[in-house]
Design goal:
82 residues, mainly alpha, 4 helices
């Protein structure tokens, strides 16, 4: 990623979402998962998506148990809706 340019693709994120992420204390894995969900939804002009555990593992590098635990935490924190 030597010189990322908006012309090569971008994910439009509402400022309200960015501000909420900035102001919410998240663990590293929680932040990774949240950003990945934003990429898989807003990045493809969707408001929701069905994302498999395998996709989370593949794109975040997190183990399945970590993904499952992190998703549960994000739902409890009202960051994600299941």
């Amino acid at each position: 990623m030597a010189s990322p340019q908006k012309e090569n693709g971008f994910t439009p994120i509402a400022n309200e979402i960015l501000e909420a992420l900035v102001n919410t204390p998240l663990l590293g894995s929680e932040f990774q998962i949240a950003i990945f969900v934003i990429r898989k939804t807003y990045g493809f002009k969707k408001k929701h998506d069905i994302i498999s555990l395998t996709q989370f593992e593949k794109h975040t590098g997190l183990s399945r148990p970590t993904v499952v635990k992190t998703l549960k935490n994000l739902v409890l924190k009202n960051i994600l809706v299941k």
